[in-house]
Amino acid sequence: MLAGSGPGVFREAAVMSSKPTRVERDTMGEMEVPSDAYYGASTQRAVLNFPISGRPIPRRMVLALGWIKWAAAGVNRDLGLLEPKLAAAIEQAALEVATGRHDREFVVDVFQTGSGTSSNMNANEVIANRAAEILGAERGARGQVHPNDHVNLGQSSNDVIPTAVHLAALLAIHEVLEPGVRQLALELSRKSDEFWDVVKTGRTHLQDATPVRLGQVFRGYAGQMERALRRIAQAREELAEVALGGTAVGTGVNTHPEFARRVLERVSARIGSEIRETDNHFQAQATLDGVVAASGLLRSVAIGLLKIANDVRLLASGPRTGLGELALPEVQPGSSIMPGKVNPVIAESAIQVAAQFLAHDQAIVQAGEWGFFELNTMLPLAAHNLVTGIETLGAAAGNLAERCIRGCSATARGPELVERGLAIVTGLVPLVGYDRAAAIAKEAAKQGRTVREVAAAMTDLTPEQLDAALDPLKMTEPGS
Q1: Is the peptide bond before 319 cis (omega within 30 degrees of 0)?
Q2: Full DSSP string of 173-211
Q3: What is the DSSP string of 55-89?
Q4: Which residues partner with 32 through β-bridges?
Q5: What phi and psi values does residue 167 have, to the nearest 5 degrees?
Q6: In terms of Cα–Cα distance, which of 119, 99, 98, 127 is closest to 55?
Q7: Residue numbers annotated as active site
Q8: CATH number of the domain bearing residue 130
Q9: 2 lies in some domain
């Protein structure tokens, strides 16, 4: 239904023309909706009101709404607020939403009412109509299963949507980001071991520096991703505290005092990730502080990915006129005009994803600024940027690990360049002093000779002393 993109395609898909329709009702009156749709009048009004991007809310937001509605029905039954047969039908319908069976029914554009009420009602109507069908009634039978009175019982869009944002982000972290980063950390660690005995020239300020093991370089990359996993854990903690239970403005009006705790316990047990009711509902609904904090932590993961991908492509540059110290897997032709050219496309893809995440993060910062009085009104924007950013970042990390790092290899170029480098003169400083070592380096550069050759001519050091002082492997572990 939403296979295309852009307002025109969205409008064509969502607004009826000659398609069969049925009449549904809400508090504003009658509205025609597609006869085969599970959504109802409120959703159709939102479709007509927001023909903006052609993009619905993230799929994991839909799943999160399904889980919340599923748990709410069971809890309301247990609290004696819903008749068991009705609750069971709502549970079944919500479970279908939570497992993705009705994704095509979520047709409201992501750029909608800032509270996300339209998407909450989209979920309520789909579940209500499907539950009515389960009970043997026709779609649109509001008297049988009501989207507000039954499916939304004990809830408000103002606490459900922020809770769904957190839950969707947690699902994306658990299913995509964490596995991708963990895979990348593992592959980098394996390469660190593989490259441990390969010595190369270190570089600071893009200039030659003292020797370093290629394995040490990759140990640094692995360390970045290992710490990224810690920051991901911190982000999960920020997202674990949710707004459910505050209803409209944080006071909890029209909900049972045990409702939120019980719902979140059910959801946590089902998804295997803990979410818990906030101890301050007023901050949870008036702000996006938890989302902003989580995004900021994940921003550091994106920057780490960018650094690693950029280093890898530069180390593989050339291969003959660049550094050429790494050979990357050849995954596709690199040019439509230059035969044989192969580009670092996997690394470039990861770099673009990292840059896009930074844009997502900036949008989230701006969304966080839009908390006026008792409600933040950029919830759908925050959901879109946080969940989409997490998903793409995780996919890029896993792809870099699988299609680039796993198959990369060291060339002979790095070790060959070490002897020709000037920074190796640092090993002579304890023997001849800084100033004299600098003079040796300058003379070597001027003459196009190696430091070893010039030092042999300018000092009284024996060949054995030069060998010991200019041993590049010893320089990589001076304390050993």
Answers
A1: yes
A2: IIIIIHHHHHHHHHHHHHHHHHTTT-EEEEEETTEEEEE
A3: -BS-HHHHHHHHHHHHHHHHHHHHTTSS-HHHHHH
A4: 23
A5: -65, -45
A6: 119
A7: 205, 335
A8: 1.10.275.10
A9: no
Q: What residue numbers bound the domain in which 436 lies?
A: 421-476
In a domain, 88, yes or no: yes
Final residue before a domain boundary, out of 391, 410, 429: 410
CA distance linking residue 67 with residue 273, whole number of Å: 13
Among residues 195, 193, 162, which one has the least CA distance to residue 371? 162
Residue 194 shares a structural domain with residue 307: yes
- For residue 1, pLDDT over 60 is answered with no
Q: What average pLDDT does this structure show over 157-177?
A: 98
Same domain, 364 and 335: yes
Over residues 251-292, the pLDDT tens digits come to: 999 999 999 999 999 999 999 889 999 999 999 999 999 999
Count CB atoms within 10 A of the CB of residue 256: 17
pLDDT value at position 6? Answer: 44
Are 462 and 338 part of one and the same domain? no
**Number of domains observed in the structure of the chain:** 3
Residue 187 clears pLDDT 50, i.e. is over it? yes
Q: Are residues 131 and 184 in the same domain?
A: no
Residue 113 lies in a domain: yes
Tokens standing for residue 206? 């893009």
What is the band of 336 on the pLDDT scale with cuts at 50, 70, 90? confident
Residues 72 and 166 occupy one common structural domain: no
Same domain, 104 and 206: no
CA torsion angle 131 137 141 142 (round to 10): -40
Residue 69: the pLDDT is 98
pLDDT of residue 141: 80
pLDDT digit string, tens, across residues 301-325: 999 999 999 999 999 999 889 999 9
pLDDT value for 3: 36
CB-CB neighbours of 433 under 10 Å: 11
pLDDT of residue 480: 59
AA letter at 26: D
| Residue 415: inside a domain | no
Q: What is the DSSP string of 273-337?
A: S--EE-S-HHHHHH--HHHHHHHHHHHHHHHHHHHHHHHHHHHT--SSSS---EE----S---SS
Give me 204's structure tokens: 């600071």
Per-residue model confidence as pLDDT tens digits over 218-245? 999 999 999 999 999 999 999 999 999 9
For residues 335 and 400, membership in a common domain is answered with yes
Boundary residue ending a domain (153, 185, 216) = 153
By C-alpha distance, which of 358, 316, 270 is closest to 64?
270
Are 134 and 166 members of one domain?
no
